[in-house]
Amino acid sequence: MIRPIVFFLSAGLAILAACGPVKNVPALLPETDDPLYKQAQEDLKTGRLAHAREKFNTLLYQRSGRAPETQFEVGRLCLDPQINDPLAAIHHLRQYLLERPDTEQSAQVRELIHKGEKMFLQGIQGRLFAPVLNRYELDEKLNATLRENNLLKRDIEKFRLRIAQLEQIPARPFSTDASVNATRSAEPSPVQHSPPQPPPPAPPRRYTVQAGDTLYKISHKLYGTGVRYREIFDANRDKLPHERTPLKIGWELKIPQ
User: Deepest in the core among 2, 13, 32, 134, taking most CB within 10 A?
Assistant: First the structure.
């Protein structure tokens, strides 16, 4: 993996070097006194990096590359995130070292070259491995969604079990209501040899709805168990179109025997 990257890096630098041959052309002014150099420095101060790079490159062309300070400035400029051209930065910084290999600034230039090489390699690796990284991110999102889905399924199952527990039919307790107990005691005994004739059906009782009443509560209050709420509902369909119809205080409901 590293050898092909180094090959492309060397080839790119060779192409850049071939595009700008160094010629011995005398300069009329010192490099840093050139109007183009000063204008480019002003552009750098105002953040106009693209304009500064264009002026520096023009100055290099006019001086046939014999402008080490300009090479240094362009090299630093190409490493800026807004420009992000590490290959060009390496080329210009190496041109500086060809002119001034042993100055105090040479150590900084070598560090900048190393930084440009790292940026170039990171860019190559990013383009090579971008599909793999995207697939990895998608897999992570899919796994996270599946985990959330499993948690939701567990919560739903817990709620279902809880509802089933709440809907269990309670045991029929002995009622303290005298009328209910009297009704139970009046039921025919199965041990009698000749069971009496069943009495004629008695008219339904009436119950006035109170605050907080439901069909289940009324059934439990009058019958000792809430499971007969359906009988009360069937006897009062004229007022209750549905089992969940809220009861109004003061209603008189028919209570079957």
Answer: 13
| Position 152 pLDDT exceeds 50 | yes
What tens digit of pLDDT does each residue of 23-34 get? 444 446 899 999
Q: How many Cβ atoms from other residues are within 10 Å of residue 245's Cβ?
A: 13
Quote the DSSP letter at residue 199: P
Residue 61 has pLDDT above 90, yes or no: yes
Q: In 3-state terms, what secondary structure has residue 254?
A: strand
Q: What are phi and psi of 62, to 5 degrees?
A: -65, -35
Written as six digits, the tokens of 116 are 């440009």
Enumerate the domain spans of the chain.
2-125, 203-257
The better pLDDT of the pair 28, 72 is held by 72
CA dist., res. 219 & res. 199, Å (int): 23
Contacts of 118 (CB under 8 A, 6+ apart): none
Phi, psi of 206 (to 5 degrees): -120, 145
Cβ neighbourhood burial of 238 (10 Å; 0-12, 13-18, 19+): exposed
The pLDDT of residue 210: 92
DSSP string, 38-58: HHHHHHHHTT-HHHHHHHHHH
Q: What is the pTM of this model?
A: 0.42
What CATH number labels 2-125? 1.25.40.10
* Domain over 203-257 is classified CATH 3.40.50.720: no
* pLDDT at 177 (0 to 100): 53
Q: Do domains 2-125 and 203-257 have the same CATH topology?
A: no
For residue 233, what are the CA distances in angstroms to 48, 160, 240?
83, 26, 7
